[in-house]
From TrEMBL:
PANTHER family recorded: 5,10-METHYLENETETRAHYDROMETHANOPTERIN REDUCTASE, PTHR43244
Gene3D superfamilies: Luciferase-like domain (3.20.20.30)
Protein name per the record: LLM class flavin-dependent oxidoreductase
Sequence segments annotated as region (Disordered): 148-172
Length: 333
Protein backbone atom coordinates (compact mmCIF):
# COMPACT_ATOMS: atom_id res chain seq x y z
CA UNK A 1 0.00 0.00 0.00
CA UNK A 2 1.45 3.42 -0.97
CA UNK A 3 2.80 5.43 1.95
CA UNK A 4 0.72 8.56 1.69
CA UNK A 5 -1.69 10.58 3.79
CA UNK A 6 -5.39 10.43 2.98
CA UNK A 7 -8.57 11.77 4.54
CA UNK A 8 -11.94 10.26 5.28
CA UNK A 9 -14.97 11.91 6.85
CA UNK A 10 -17.68 10.83 9.28
CA UNK A 11 -21.22 11.58 8.11
CA UNK A 12 -22.62 13.07 11.32
CA UNK A 13 -25.20 13.07 12.73
CA UNK A 14 -26.82 11.01 9.94
CA UNK A 15 -25.91 10.18 6.33
CA UNK A 16 -27.46 12.83 4.10
CA UNK A 17 -27.51 12.71 0.30
CA UNK A 18 -26.48 16.31 -0.45
CA UNK A 19 -23.74 16.27 2.21
CA UNK A 20 -22.27 13.08 0.76
CA UNK A 21 -22.42 14.48 -2.77
CA UNK A 22 -20.50 17.57 -1.62
CA UNK A 23 -17.88 15.43 0.13
CA UNK A 24 -17.35 13.34 -3.00
CA UNK A 25 -16.29 16.51 -4.82
CA UNK A 26 -13.51 17.04 -2.27
CA UNK A 27 -10.15 15.21 -2.03
CA UNK A 28 -11.76 12.80 0.43
CA UNK A 29 -11.23 9.06 -0.01
CA UNK A 30 -13.71 7.54 2.44
CA UNK A 31 -16.91 8.22 4.39
CA UNK A 32 -17.87 6.52 7.64
CA UNK A 33 -20.75 6.03 10.04
CA UNK A 34 -21.50 3.61 12.84
CA UNK A 35 -24.50 3.17 15.06
CA UNK A 36 -26.07 1.42 18.01
CA UNK A 37 -28.99 -0.99 18.08
CA UNK A 38 -30.63 0.84 21.01
CA UNK A 39 -29.09 4.32 20.97
CA UNK A 40 -30.15 6.86 23.58
CA UNK A 41 -31.02 9.31 20.77
CA UNK A 42 -32.90 8.98 17.50
CA UNK A 43 -29.94 7.91 15.40
CA UNK A 44 -29.46 4.99 13.03
CA UNK A 45 -27.94 1.53 13.18
CA UNK A 46 -24.61 0.74 11.53
CA UNK A 47 -25.70 -1.58 8.71
CA UNK A 48 -28.66 0.55 7.63
CA UNK A 49 -26.48 3.66 7.63
CA UNK A 50 -23.86 1.80 5.57
CA UNK A 51 -26.53 0.82 3.06
CA UNK A 52 -27.56 4.46 2.65
CA UNK A 53 -23.98 5.56 2.13
CA UNK A 54 -23.31 2.89 -0.51
CA UNK A 55 -26.45 3.97 -2.36
CA UNK A 56 -25.75 7.70 -2.12
CA UNK A 57 -22.07 7.65 -3.14
CA UNK A 58 -20.25 6.62 -6.29
CA UNK A 59 -16.51 7.08 -5.74
CA UNK A 60 -15.45 6.95 -2.10
CA UNK A 61 -14.90 3.99 0.16
CA UNK A 62 -17.71 3.56 2.66
CA UNK A 63 -17.12 2.18 6.13
CA UNK A 64 -18.61 1.43 9.52
CA UNK A 65 -17.06 3.35 12.39
CA UNK A 66 -17.97 1.30 14.09
CA UNK A 67 -20.00 -1.90 13.83
CA UNK A 68 -20.51 -3.48 17.28
CA UNK A 69 -19.79 -6.96 15.98
CA UNK A 70 -20.56 -9.01 19.14
CA UNK A 71 -24.21 -7.92 18.95
CA UNK A 72 -24.75 -9.53 15.54
CA UNK A 73 -25.09 -13.15 14.35
CA UNK A 74 -22.00 -13.52 12.14
CA UNK A 75 -23.72 -15.35 9.28
CA UNK A 76 -26.37 -12.65 8.92
CA UNK A 77 -23.95 -9.74 9.09
CA UNK A 78 -21.54 -11.52 6.71
CA UNK A 79 -24.30 -11.79 4.11
CA UNK A 80 -25.40 -8.18 4.55
CA UNK A 81 -21.87 -6.82 4.24
CA UNK A 82 -21.00 -9.06 1.29
CA UNK A 83 -24.11 -7.92 -0.59
CA UNK A 84 -23.36 -4.24 0.03
CA UNK A 85 -19.74 -4.73 -1.03
CA UNK A 86 -20.83 -6.47 -4.22
CA UNK A 87 -23.37 -3.81 -5.17
CA UNK A 88 -20.93 -0.96 -4.44
CA UNK A 89 -18.12 -2.38 -6.54
CA UNK A 90 -15.96 -3.40 -3.59
CA UNK A 91 -16.04 -0.06 -1.77
CA UNK A 92 -17.02 -1.33 1.71
CA UNK A 93 -14.67 -1.36 4.71
CA UNK A 94 -15.84 -2.72 8.05
CA UNK A 95 -14.65 -1.01 11.21
CA UNK A 96 -15.39 -3.28 14.16
CA UNK A 97 -15.41 -2.80 17.90
CA UNK A 98 -16.67 -4.52 21.02
CA UNK A 99 -18.76 -1.73 22.58
CA UNK A 100 -20.11 -2.28 26.08
CA UNK A 101 -20.96 1.27 27.11
CA UNK A 102 -24.69 0.55 26.72
CA UNK A 103 -25.17 -2.67 28.64
CA UNK A 104 -28.87 -2.85 27.81
CA UNK A 105 -28.00 -3.43 24.14
CA UNK A 106 -26.22 -6.63 25.06
CA UNK A 107 -28.97 -7.75 27.45
CA UNK A 108 -31.62 -7.14 24.79
CA UNK A 109 -29.99 -9.52 22.27
CA UNK A 110 -28.91 -12.12 24.82
CA UNK A 111 -25.18 -11.48 24.62
CA UNK A 112 -23.28 -11.24 27.93
CA UNK A 113 -21.11 -8.12 28.04
CA UNK A 114 -18.23 -10.19 29.39
CA UNK A 115 -18.20 -12.26 26.18
CA UNK A 116 -17.91 -9.33 23.79
CA UNK A 117 -14.17 -9.65 23.15
CA UNK A 118 -14.18 -13.39 22.56
CA UNK A 119 -17.26 -13.20 20.36
CA UNK A 120 -15.68 -10.46 18.26
CA UNK A 121 -12.48 -12.45 17.69
CA UNK A 122 -14.39 -15.57 16.72
CA UNK A 123 -16.82 -13.64 14.53
CA UNK A 124 -13.99 -11.95 12.63
CA UNK A 125 -12.45 -15.31 11.80
CA UNK A 126 -15.84 -16.66 10.76
CA UNK A 127 -16.54 -13.66 8.51
CA UNK A 128 -13.26 -14.25 6.72
CA UNK A 129 -14.19 -17.89 6.16
CA UNK A 130 -17.66 -17.03 4.89
CA UNK A 131 -16.26 -14.39 2.51
CA UNK A 132 -13.81 -16.88 1.01
CA UNK A 133 -16.54 -18.36 -1.16
CA UNK A 134 -15.67 -21.83 0.07
CA UNK A 135 -17.80 -24.13 2.24
CA UNK A 136 -17.36 -23.33 5.92
CA UNK A 137 -17.57 -25.61 8.92
CA UNK A 138 -16.90 -23.92 12.23
CA UNK A 139 -17.36 -25.23 15.76
CA UNK A 140 -16.26 -22.54 18.19
CA UNK A 141 -17.02 -21.44 21.70
CA UNK A 142 -19.80 -19.13 20.55
CA UNK A 143 -20.79 -20.09 16.99
CA UNK A 144 -21.44 -23.37 15.15
CA UNK A 145 -21.99 -23.81 11.42
CA UNK A 146 -21.77 -26.93 9.25
CA UNK A 147 -20.82 -26.90 5.57
CA UNK A 148 -22.37 -23.57 4.58
CA UNK A 149 -21.44 -21.38 1.63
CA UNK A 150 -22.18 -17.67 1.43
CA UNK A 151 -22.91 -16.26 -2.02
CA UNK A 152 -23.12 -12.46 -2.40
CA UNK A 153 -25.94 -10.95 -4.40
CA UNK A 154 -25.59 -10.88 -8.19
CA UNK A 155 -26.84 -7.62 -9.73
CA UNK A 156 -29.50 -8.10 -12.42
CA UNK A 157 -28.57 -7.78 -16.12
CA UNK A 158 -28.37 -4.19 -17.22
CA UNK A 159 -27.83 -2.79 -13.74
CA UNK A 160 -25.54 0.25 -14.19
CA UNK A 161 -23.94 -0.03 -10.75
CA UNK A 162 -20.44 -1.54 -10.59
CA UNK A 163 -20.76 -5.21 -9.70
CA UNK A 164 -18.45 -7.33 -7.66
CA UNK A 165 -16.99 -7.15 -4.18
CA UNK A 166 -13.41 -7.54 -3.09
CA UNK A 167 -11.97 -11.05 -3.26
CA UNK A 168 -11.99 -12.40 0.27
CA UNK A 169 -14.50 -9.81 1.43
CA UNK A 170 -14.28 -6.28 2.79
CA UNK A 171 -11.30 -5.23 4.92
CA UNK A 172 -11.84 -5.51 8.68
CA UNK A 173 -10.28 -2.64 10.60
CA UNK A 174 -10.28 -2.71 14.39
CA UNK A 175 -11.27 0.17 16.61
CA UNK A 176 -10.49 0.66 20.29
CA UNK A 177 -7.94 2.14 22.65
CA UNK A 178 -6.80 -0.69 24.89
CA UNK A 179 -4.35 -3.55 24.45
CA UNK A 180 -6.97 -6.26 23.72
CA UNK A 181 -8.09 -4.20 20.73
CA UNK A 182 -4.47 -3.78 19.62
CA UNK A 183 -3.94 -7.54 19.81
CA UNK A 184 -7.12 -8.07 17.80
CA UNK A 185 -5.91 -5.68 15.12
CA UNK A 186 -2.48 -7.32 14.99
CA UNK A 187 -3.75 -10.87 14.69
CA UNK A 188 -7.06 -10.55 12.84
CA UNK A 189 -7.41 -7.06 11.37
CA UNK A 190 -6.60 -5.30 8.13
CA UNK A 191 -6.08 -1.99 9.93
CA UNK A 192 -6.10 -0.04 13.19
CA UNK A 193 -8.69 2.71 13.80
CA UNK A 194 -8.43 4.08 17.35
CA UNK A 195 -10.17 7.21 18.63
CA UNK A 196 -9.60 9.79 21.38
CA UNK A 197 -5.92 8.99 21.81
CA UNK A 198 -2.96 11.37 21.88
CA UNK A 199 -0.12 11.20 19.33
CA UNK A 200 2.17 9.56 21.89
CA UNK A 201 -0.47 6.96 22.72
CA UNK A 202 -0.91 6.27 19.01
CA UNK A 203 2.84 5.72 18.61
CA UNK A 204 2.77 3.24 21.51
CA UNK A 205 -0.15 1.41 19.89
CA UNK A 206 1.82 1.06 16.64
CA UNK A 207 4.69 -0.55 18.52
CA UNK A 208 2.34 -2.90 20.39
CA UNK A 209 0.55 -3.98 17.23
CA UNK A 210 3.82 -4.62 15.38
CA UNK A 211 5.11 -6.73 18.27
CA UNK A 212 1.89 -8.75 18.46
CA UNK A 213 1.80 -9.24 14.70
CA UNK A 214 5.37 -10.49 14.64
CA UNK A 215 4.56 -12.95 17.44
CA UNK A 216 1.64 -14.21 15.34
CA UNK A 217 3.80 -14.53 12.23
CA UNK A 218 2.05 -11.71 10.33
CA UNK A 219 3.92 -9.24 8.14
CA UNK A 220 1.58 -6.24 8.27
CA UNK A 221 3.31 -4.40 5.43
CA UNK A 222 2.72 -7.33 3.09
CA UNK A 223 -0.97 -7.50 4.01
CA UNK A 224 -1.57 -3.80 3.26
CA UNK A 225 -2.41 -3.08 6.88
CA UNK A 226 -3.83 0.45 7.29
CA UNK A 227 -2.73 2.82 10.05
CA UNK A 228 -5.83 4.91 10.62
CA UNK A 229 -7.17 7.37 13.17
CA UNK A 230 -10.76 8.46 13.90
CA UNK A 231 -10.31 12.11 14.87
CA UNK A 232 -12.95 14.21 16.56
CA UNK A 233 -12.08 17.77 15.61
CA UNK A 234 -13.35 21.16 14.56
CA UNK A 235 -11.68 23.45 12.04
CA UNK A 236 -12.85 27.03 11.57
CA UNK A 237 -11.44 30.32 10.34
CA UNK A 238 -12.22 31.46 13.87
CA UNK A 239 -10.12 29.23 16.09
CA UNK A 240 -12.04 30.16 19.23
CA UNK A 241 -15.27 29.00 17.63
CA UNK A 242 -13.63 25.69 16.74
CA UNK A 243 -12.48 25.17 20.31
CA UNK A 244 -15.95 26.02 21.60
CA UNK A 245 -17.37 23.45 19.15
CA UNK A 246 -15.29 20.65 20.62
CA UNK A 247 -16.01 21.53 24.24
CA UNK A 248 -19.75 21.69 23.52
CA UNK A 249 -19.73 18.47 21.48
CA UNK A 250 -17.52 16.28 23.67
CA UNK A 251 -16.95 18.10 26.94
CA UNK A 252 -19.74 16.50 28.95
CA UNK A 253 -17.82 13.25 29.19
CA UNK A 254 -14.68 14.85 30.64
CA UNK A 255 -15.74 16.26 33.99
CA UNK A 256 -15.21 19.84 35.11
CA UNK A 257 -12.01 20.52 33.12
CA UNK A 258 -12.85 19.35 29.61
CA UNK A 259 -10.91 21.86 27.53
CA UNK A 260 -7.41 20.87 28.67
CA UNK A 261 -8.16 17.16 28.36
CA UNK A 262 -9.86 17.47 25.01
CA UNK A 263 -6.98 19.45 23.56
CA UNK A 264 -4.81 16.33 23.83
CA UNK A 265 -7.12 14.06 21.82
CA UNK A 266 -9.50 16.24 19.78
CA UNK A 267 -7.69 18.88 17.69
CA UNK A 268 -9.44 22.20 17.15
CA UNK A 269 -8.60 25.62 15.80
CA UNK A 270 -7.72 27.23 12.48
CA UNK A 271 -6.53 25.10 9.54
CA UNK A 272 -2.93 25.96 10.39
CA UNK A 273 -3.37 24.99 14.03
CA UNK A 274 -5.14 21.70 13.28
CA UNK A 275 -2.57 20.80 10.63
CA UNK A 276 0.17 21.19 13.23
CA UNK A 277 -1.70 18.87 15.59
CA UNK A 278 -2.44 16.26 12.91
CA UNK A 279 1.20 16.34 11.83
CA UNK A 280 2.04 14.92 15.27
CA UNK A 281 -0.20 11.94 14.48
CA UNK A 282 1.42 11.53 11.05
CA UNK A 283 4.80 11.44 12.74
CA UNK A 284 3.42 8.75 15.08
CA UNK A 285 2.34 6.59 12.14
CA UNK A 286 -1.15 7.66 11.00
CA UNK A 287 -1.73 7.55 7.26
CA UNK A 288 -5.54 7.66 7.00
CA UNK A 289 -7.46 10.22 9.08
CA UNK A 290 -11.22 9.92 9.46
CA UNK A 291 -12.30 13.47 10.28
CA UNK A 292 -15.32 13.39 12.58
CA UNK A 293 -16.67 16.94 12.92
CA UNK A 294 -17.03 17.67 16.64
CA UNK A 295 -19.64 20.32 15.96
CA UNK A 296 -23.39 20.64 16.04
CA UNK A 297 -23.64 22.68 12.85
CA UNK A 298 -21.77 23.47 9.63
CA UNK A 299 -20.03 20.08 9.59
CA UNK A 300 -19.36 20.32 5.86
CA UNK A 301 -17.22 23.40 6.54
CA UNK A 302 -15.06 21.35 8.91
CA UNK A 303 -14.55 18.60 6.33
CA UNK A 304 -13.94 21.07 3.50
CA UNK A 305 -11.25 22.93 5.43
CA UNK A 306 -9.66 19.61 6.38
CA UNK A 307 -9.51 18.49 2.75
CA UNK A 308 -8.53 21.77 1.11
CA UNK A 309 -6.35 23.47 3.71
CA UNK A 310 -5.18 20.92 6.28
CA UNK A 311 -4.29 17.93 4.08
CA UNK A 312 -1.90 19.90 1.82
CA UNK A 313 0.05 21.00 4.91
CA UNK A 314 0.72 17.44 6.12
CA UNK A 315 4.04 15.83 5.20
CA UNK A 316 5.35 12.35 5.65
CA UNK A 317 8.27 12.10 8.09
CA UNK A 318 11.80 11.68 6.80
CA UNK A 319 12.02 8.47 8.82
CA UNK A 320 9.09 6.14 9.38
CA UNK A 321 7.34 5.93 12.74
CA UNK A 322 7.74 2.63 14.61
CA UNK A 323 5.95 0.00 12.61
CA UNK A 324 5.00 2.26 9.72
CA UNK A 325 6.07 1.63 6.15
CA UNK A 326 9.05 3.62 4.81
CA UNK A 327 8.23 7.29 4.35
CA UNK A 328 8.16 9.29 1.16
CA UNK A 329 8.76 12.99 0.91
CA UNK A 330 5.28 14.51 0.63
CA UNK A 331 1.63 13.79 1.37
CA UNK A 332 -0.77 13.19 -1.49
CA UNK A 333 -4.52 13.10 -1.66
Amino acid sequence: MPDRIVLGAAALPEPERNWLAAVERLPIESVWQGGHILPPTGTGEAITRLALMTAWTERVRVGTAILLLPLYPPVIVAKQLADLDARSGGRVTVGVGVGGEFRHEFDSVGVPVAERGGRTDEAMALLRGLWSGEPVTHHGKYFDVDDITLRPVTPPPGDPSPAGGRPGGPPLVVSGRKEPAMRRAARLGNGWLPYLVSPSAYARSVATIQTEAAAAGRDLAETGFEWMMYVYCSIRRDGDRARDDVVSFLGGAYGDKPAAMLDKVAPSGTPEQVAARLQEYVDAGVRHFVISPAAHEDTLEVVTLAAEEVLPRLTLPATAAPGAVPAASRASS
